[in-house]
Amino acid sequence: MHPEVIKVACSNCNLRELCMPVGLSDQDLTRLDELVAVRRKVKRGDTLFTNGEKFTSLYAIRTGFFKTCLATEDGRDQVTGFQMAGEIIGLDGIVNDQHSCDAVALEDAEVCVMPFDRIEEISREVKALQHHVHKIMSREIVREHGVMLLLGSMRAEERLAAFLLNLVQRLHARGFSQSELILRMTREEIGSYLGLKLETVSRTFSKFVEEGMVEVKQRHVRILNTDALQRLVNNTSHCE
Amino acid sequence: MHPEVIKVACSNCNLRELCMPVGLSDQDLTRLDELVAVRRKVKRGDTLFTNGEKFTSLYAIRTGFFKTCLATEDGRDQVTGFQMAGEIIGLDGIVNDQHSCDAVALEDAEVCVMPFDRIEEISREVKALQHHVHKIMSREIVREHGVMLLLGSMRAEERLAAFLLNLVQRLHARGFSQSELILRMTREEIGSYLGLKLETVSRTFSKFVEEGMVEVKQRHVRILNTDALQRLVNNTSHCE
DNA sequence: CGACACCTTGAAGAGGTTCAAGAAATGTGG
DNA sequence: CCACATTTCTTGAACCTCTTCAAGGTGTCG
Prior knowledge:
2 copies of one chain form a homodimer.
Chain A: E1 5-6, H1 16-19, H2 26-32, E2 38-42, E3 47-49, E4 57-71, E5 77-84, E6 88-89, E7 102-115, H3 116-123, H4 127-153, H5 156-173, E8 180-182, H6 187-194, H7 198-210, E9 214-217, E10 220-223, H8 226-233
Antiparallel strand pairs in A: 1-2, 2-7, 3-7, 4-5, 4-6, 4-7, 8-10, 9-10
Helix pairs in contact in A: 3-4, 5-8, 6-7
The structure holds a DNA duplex.
């Protein structure tokens, strides 16, 4: 099915601290290596899984960048998140044993395939892994609360500012610049995630540039004034 | 601390099939009874937990109705969900060992307090419970995806229609009417959840009444035309 | 019964969308 | 490697939905 697969081990993966629990005994670490069945490469534009597909595994992103999106029959389309190296995707599939959204690679990517029954099996023996899995799911719930706050109460500028700050913050945690980033997604995908039309995203970028808060050359963004963006997000002037 | 507490057992709770896994052996059922430490009553308007509070337990709602909401320092306030009997709240607290939102009772309520370390302990022994916990968290993630779709791509009428249909559907699953319901929340709370102002919620209700889709007397709502509401939600005319 | 919270409705206004056109970047095939 | 097709991005102008502000009505609870 997927010819692009390689056997691997977690215990000496350089991303381990991002996607796995820390402070394990050697014994537990050995158990952990049984977690990842194989790796899988996903070409840009291809899907890792799609809505309706049988759920078998969670995926830890090793390299590359994904979006997850919900497409309904009637043509609505909502990007529910963007995921980068060290993050886990596929959690949506557990409840009904099938995925309820699409995961699309926005650049060539490689993931670790972790069969979920194996995760549950090892979780029953390794407390730290069990708690880690719970934390990952809880983190996703809290993240989505934040998106609801964004979609429910912020104006366009505030949304885009929050989006940019969130992206650089996550990239910075991975060793990239605090102020510079390359957007892996189109204006339309940003818009879908933020509940805005692509034109509004574009206009808002232009506004930020005019005001000297960022430099934008297509998908290259340099943040010139983090504080100003942060102030936008924390703005009290539009709320009761 | 909480004087209103009573010792109880899950195994013969009439809500068990809503919040607990089914098809357990008698032995497993006995283990399950260790799950609920106590029950706790929460008066209307009081909080079950608040943002920043130390996380210790998940709560299964026995009776009553809650909202969870996110209030930021700068005055933003977002209702992230409404919860009714048989539903589990508190999942947000796992990731950082403290709650990240407030849970407020919208009517007098009673919950089963399930200390999370005990949940994890028993999960390691009872496979069905382990998987059940995973499903509950995954379900919450998927539910929030749906809210993101709503907030990101629907217009006011569509949002309110989706909201009403979701509520009656859940109430119906609990043995209540398919067409009649009493709203436990204010227009403002509905608006916060749906990303609308209370006036817009009120106007949209009035519009539905004019069009003969529902009857509304304050918080009493009778749905006269479910299909019409459903068609609104599935409307293709405003999407690409 | 009076105070307070909640709801409804109107009118004006703002923010975002839609439609449209053109420019810039990207990818493809010869 | 260049020319062309395609995708992506930007910007303008008109329009529309929802918000804001305001006033009055309804319901509820001590």
